[in-house]
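User: Could you walk me through two proteins back to back? I'd like the raw sequence and the structure tokens for each, with a short line separating them so I can tell where one ends and the next begins.

Assistant: Of course. Protein one, sequence then structure:
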Amino acid sequence: MSHLSTANTENTSKKNALSVVFGVVTALIISFAAFAILAAVMLWGGIGEGLAGPLTIAASVISILAGAFLTARRIGEKGWLWGAVCGLVYYIIVYICALSAMMEFNFSLKTLLMLLLGAVCGMAGGILGVNAGTKKRRR
């Protein structure tokens, strides 16, 4: 492998990693805003606590879709892969934050399902991100 090829691979790897970080940070910001709005509506509005779980999951799904979309859009290829990475990293960060708040480790089927949900939503967002705006030539 030539020096030029190695440098190009390193630049691509760095660009991909920065794109994932950008997507995850974007997803976390969207989640934080959505959770703040949800908390305010629950506090002052008419939404009961029974809807908190489903609305939290919905906010996370939307956040992951957006973050994965942006990640894959920046990378431009393999949207399913980079979207899944974005979704998994998002949920790992959220899980670590939840662990630090609860001070106990509890890896359960629910945790595994949330990681799977993050990966699947990330894949969907990544596929949309790569394919958005591409114009296919008619033959």
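----
Protein two, same layout:
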Amino acid sequence: MVDYLKEYFDFRALLLCLGLVLVGLLSVYSATFDVGAAAAFKKQLVWAGFGLLALFTMAFVPIRTLQRISLPLYIFNLGLLLIVLVIGERVSGSKSWFGLGGASGQPSLGGQPSEFMKVTSVLALAAFLARTSISLTNPKHLLLAVAIVVVPMALILAQPDLGTTIVFFAMLLPVLYWAGAGNFVLAAILAPIIAAAGALFGTLTFLVMLTISGALLYITRQNRFAAAVAFGITLAVGLSVQAVYERLPSYQQKRISTFLNPGSDQKGAGYNVYQSKVAIGSGGFFGKGYLQGTQTQLNFIPEQWTDFIFCVPGEEFGFVGASVVIGLFTGLLLHGIRVAGLS
């Protein structure tokens, strides 16, 4: 077993992950121990244990076995995403949780199918692209590969959970790149996203983003017809997004605009983001000390232990602590890229 671990177990990735888990546990404890939300830390501790158990278990699962179970797991999780839209708990505006309601609107038990979907989508996509008969130069194969990621993206967007949807898109392009997709294919996928994002910022920004998308397609073109079709799709997507956005109720427009520009509503929907920036900025170079952050301990940031947890090490350990967290994530990312390049 020792020889097996030396040859196949990725100790560098393990150390980086353990570092992030430790930072996460310390941060969640700091954000919850004095605000009556100790259950959040206990859940974090339990899930950290489950994660480490899963890590060591999967280290001994043969690659062939992962390939065989990837599709059933993917289909099962798609089913969960459909079910959660019907009977799931609505938390922070998104119907994305299974579980019983807990304090502060957070489920006391359960989880989000979208989190498991991230893993099963990667497994399913990798297993599909690993087949010797699959070639991304074949339009049918390319569409199937894209669909593996786009289908769960659509279900998650329906919850709605825009943040998680973006994670899936960020996952798609690198996998297609390493699987041998050409530059034009990647540009054709990226261009409509650029145009759609620009459409949400107004007509001028949309025109600028559309120009950038067109230039990207032109530079990477394989032939003029394909480039023209891709640009037409990009234009249609951008105009559609703009038209749909203008017809949304004002409160939905405000939610989207605040997501894109949190500073536009510092006392409302952008309050947490604004206070998080204050917390990080007040940490200075070395921070205020563990459990000594005023923004954190005085509960200026409601439910800080969720999406805004980064401001805890930023405030309590300052620039140094924030740099350590970013360094751990960067190290894990670069290591993952290196491993992917060797696979």
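The longest strand covers residues 94-97.

Let me know if you want the two compared in more detail.
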